Amino acid sequence: MEQPGYDALAQLYADSFPAPYQCAVERRAVEAFVDEVREHDPSATVFDVGSGIGHVTADLVRWGVRTVGLEPSNGMRSIAMRTHPECHFIDDDALLARAAADIECGAILARFSLIHVPPEELPDVLAAWATRLAGGAPVLIGAQASRSADTIAFDHRVAPAWRWHPDALARLLFEAGFDEAWRMIAQADGTHRFAELHLMARRR
């Protein structure tokens, strides 16, 4: 799951998106997820999958949540480490099979990173998560949303990407051993081309 496009555009990405959230719904979804983590296990380590330049990882750390940022792009990870030296970032991706393999995982946050996983490979990713998480552990997935088909490929600037219908994503999570707890949807507007989904589920 290497992302060479993010290496090439890492600094442009950092300059274009200096804030961790692009709308209030994004922030509220992460805040609600943090509440879920604290309720489940205040000492849990959150894996921020696809942590990018690290600003959301840094928010979680500031809020007192033990967090590890997983980022396969060397360029993005380098910016994260330089900008947020108080945080821990490692070279890994959604399969959690490299640097994260020996770190205990208590919850997973994946904001707009699973969109780059080909739909036929996403069940394997979710199955890998299920093997790492205890019952009740929360996961939050953020993705551009589809209103019709289960998945729709779209013209992401950096790498191949797919939008997900909320029900289709919830179904895959259920099949992997997760039960949906809640979802938030931010509608498309002048800033966002597509509606955005934030779906929180718990390991059965």
UniProtKB/TrEMBL annotation:
Lineage of the organism: Bacteria, Bacillati, Actinomycetota, Actinomycetes, Mycobacteriales
Cited PANTHER family: TRANS-ACONITATE 2-METHYLTRANSFERASE, TRANS-ACONITATE 2-METHYLTRANSFERASE-RELATED
Gene Ontology process terms (BP): methylation
Methyltransferase domain residues: 46-134
GO MF entry, a single one: methyltransferase activity
Keywords, comma-separated and alphabetical: Methyltransferase, Transferase
Stored Pfam families: Methyltransf_25
Protein name: Putative methyltransferase
Organism: Gordonia sputi NBRC 100414
InterPro entries, per database record: Methyltransf_25, SAM-dependent_MTases_sf
